[in-house]
Amino acid sequence: MQDQTIIRFEHVTKQYDNSAAAVLRDVSFTIERGKFYTLLGPSGCGKTTILRLIAGFTEPSEGQIYFNGKVINRVPANERQVNTVFQDYALFPHLNVFENVAFGLRIKKMKNADITAKVMDALKFVNLPGYESREIAEMSGGQRQRVAIARAIVNEPEIILLDEPLSALDLKLRTEMQYELRELQRRLGITFIFVTHDQEEALAMSDEIFVLNEGKIQQSGTPTDIYDEPINRFVADFIGESNIVPGRMVRDFEVEFAGRSFACVDQGLMPNEAVDIVIRPEDLEITLAGAGKLEARVDSQLFRGVHYEICCYDDAGNEWLVHSTRKAVVGEQIGLHFDSEAIHVMRIGETEEEFDKRLEAYSEADNVE
């Protein structure tokens, strides 16, 4: 079977200044062709640096970058089968739509007839047929983004890099463009690598997500994996909203928090090991006082349109955020119910490699049984 890996980072470190901390620290990962990847993390985490390294705008300080199995550390940007859509789109204001899209083809000295055919096909692909004579200043934000994408795909790259291209759009248009970008990637069948700090955007669009913080990949996986099985406090807190409280692993399948013991689905941790407990707000159900697994008093409530966002405190002083269609009353005593599957136990300070080994050990143990 043909290897689907198109990009591979092996122990890549990037340091812009000898006196400064490394922007990327010993990063290794693989990118497969034909998928939509998202690099997600806060400002300064290293996600845009990864994009620049793939594009050839900068070189790694240490490690190797492979493209289709060949090292490309020092291959110039113009010799890579990669195109970038920048945050500000980087369109030429003095050129019309046609000439913006055709720019790369003219640099390659292609014949005019071939250029025209390719540009018209690209504009049709991004739903802009008939706009070729428009000036850039006459285009809306969403239309400009489509022009930038057309300019990228007209060169038939193997990878398209997108550096926060939706950040300047209003909420409604940004949501529309999320669907358009995802559908465009599926129709093209090529690899998209998308950079964002917006968690909802990453969850909605991606085949796989890399969560970065302080120059390291904290966790990688499908949106469902990342959301349902965060490996540490940073990922749990950064991806969506989470209730994170301290706990203690009593034994396999039993954990203690908020002064009580609960059945859970986690195993492989040490008895009495200190852990972090994560329960998502939507997994908490409000019950009558005395009818839940926990007792809590409502401290505040906000209406969010599709649900109420309720903040409450249990008897042990832990804060709980609840998303519920049921309205609560500030000051009332309520019960909180949750399933054992809703409890996610995280080993404190666990790395992705350690997490993967623990899951592998679970699997091997289950197979033996």
UniProtKB/TrEMBL annotation:
Molecular-function GO terms, alphabetical = ABC-type putrescine transporter activity; ATP binding; ATP hydrolysis activity
Which parts pass through the membrane?
A: none
Report the SUPFAM superfamilies cross-referenced here.
MOP-like (SSF50331), P-loop containing nucleoside triphosphate hydrolases (SSF52540)
Gene3D superfamilies named among the record's database cross-references: 2.40.50.100, P-loop containing nucleotide triphosphate hydrolases
* GO CC aspect terms: ATP-binding cassette (ABC) transporter complex
ABC transporter domain location is 7-239
Answer yes or no on keyword Transport: yes
Output the Pfam families linked to this UniProt entry: ABC_tran (PF00005), TOBE_2 (PF08402)
Q: What is this protein called?
A: Spermidine/putrescine transport system ATP-binding protein
Source species, domain of life: Bacteria
Q: Which CDD domains match?
A: ABC_PotA_N
PANTHER family in UniProt? SPERMIDINE/PUTRESCINE IMPORT ATP-BINDING PROTEIN POTA, SPERMIDINE_PUTRESCINE IMPORT ATP-BINDING PROTEIN POTA
Asked if the keyword Cell membrane belongs to this entry, the reply reads: yes
Annotated keywords: ATP-binding, Cell membrane, Membrane, Nucleotide-binding, Translocase, Transport
Extract the InterPro entries matched here: AAA+_ATPase, ABC_SmlMolc_Importer, ABC_transporter-like_ATP-bd, ABC_transporter-like_CS, Mo/tungstate-bd_C_term_dom, P-loop_NTPase, PotA_ATP-bd, Transp-assoc_OB_typ2
What organism is this sequence from?
Answer: Paenibacillus endophyticus
